[in-house]
From TrEMBL:
The keyword Thylakoid does not apply. Belongs to the glycosyl hydrolase 17 family. It comes from Salvia splendens. GO terms for molecular function: glucan endo-1,3-beta-D-glucosidase activity. It is an enzyme of class 3 (hydrolase). It comes from the Eukaryota. Pfam families: Glyco_hydro_17 (PF00332). Keywords: Glycosidase, Hydrolase, Signal. The keyword Signal applies. This is glucan endo-1,3-beta-D-glucosidase.
Amino acid sequence: MANLPTKASFLHFVLGFFLTLAGFGFIQEAQSLGINYGQVGNNLPPPQKVLELLRSLKLNKARIYDTNPQILTAFANSNVDLIVTVENDMLATLSDPNQALQWVQTRIKPYFPTTKITEIAVGNEVYTGEGTALLAQLVPAMVSIHAALARHGLDRSIKVSTPNNLAVLEESYPPSAGRFRPEVAAIMPQFLRFLAATRAPFWINAYPYFAYEDSPDKIRIDYVLLNPNPGMVDPNTGLHYDNMLYAQVDAVIYAMARLGFGGIEVRVSETGWPSRGDVNEVGATFQNAAVYNRNILRRQQRNEGTPLRPNAGLEIYVFALFNEDMKPGPTSERNYGLFQPDGTMAYNVGLSQLSTTSSTSASTSTSASTSASIFLTSDATKVKIIILHPSNIIHLISSKLDVYNKMFNFILKFYW
């Protein structure tokens, strides 16, 4: 005769059953979600503390904007996929194959594979719409770095690409009209040929916030925040878009297809929303930032693709992990972080750790437990799921699951 299930296993089964009925699950890792870890601040925590924060948030992908040896050392044996960056002012130097080989020998090889470097971003936003001086150096530097990786047998483990500013597109609306600017036309075919040959992704820095800031009277706020809204239908394809980010990504895909490169993966190297801004920076608020990034997280947990590629999950790196107080420019530039430099949340987006240093928004309660938690909220329901130590019971707090709670209590009483 088969053994009866233990009380603990039965409880887990019942909890899972009712959570399924309610349309919720336990903490899910967003496998395609990464975070940009900038360092333009004089009050940021040391790399080891940053790694602890990432672990508490269950984030296993990060991007840095250099090859900081302290970070590369701290992230050893962490299993965090790490993208490192060649600074723009190094492109000319690394176009020389010998210099690129030396760079890989000193900046990459000593740390790999203990530190899980997965990609090298060669420059960042080399073209922003205001000059083409660096464009001629981009592809030669990428080719030299890839060849240097190949010399050391690392080319299959580490991809080489570059994050592009959305300004590389001359047209992005509707998405099917996407095409590259004439200014980048000279290098784009060889750049895309390199990506296709090495199976590297096309990275795009996409910020719907900027489009809304420029035209708040013409663009629905819910469309850019990824909230429920009527969206738009591309008149050429009939595809429906319920948010601007996916439309921007598909515009890049169409632009590449126009040049004969329709099979390259597109990933979002940066996207985010500022929580503060100057008077003229429309929409830069805590509320909008929280909604935008929370919706990004939810869609990543569903492994969503874009309308053009619905079955291919879209990899997204949120900008940024911290507010960086030394960044130049308007106030918004210093307020993209999900966290303050002291480790407290700037606002709650659904990634949080319950610790002595964390804080939550006014609408979210705190706990003295050291367990990890995730907050999922909607207009209809608020759910807080806390994963405790295995020796403890899993607690569920819900505002509108009365029927399920009564059924659950009845079953527990009967079983016990």
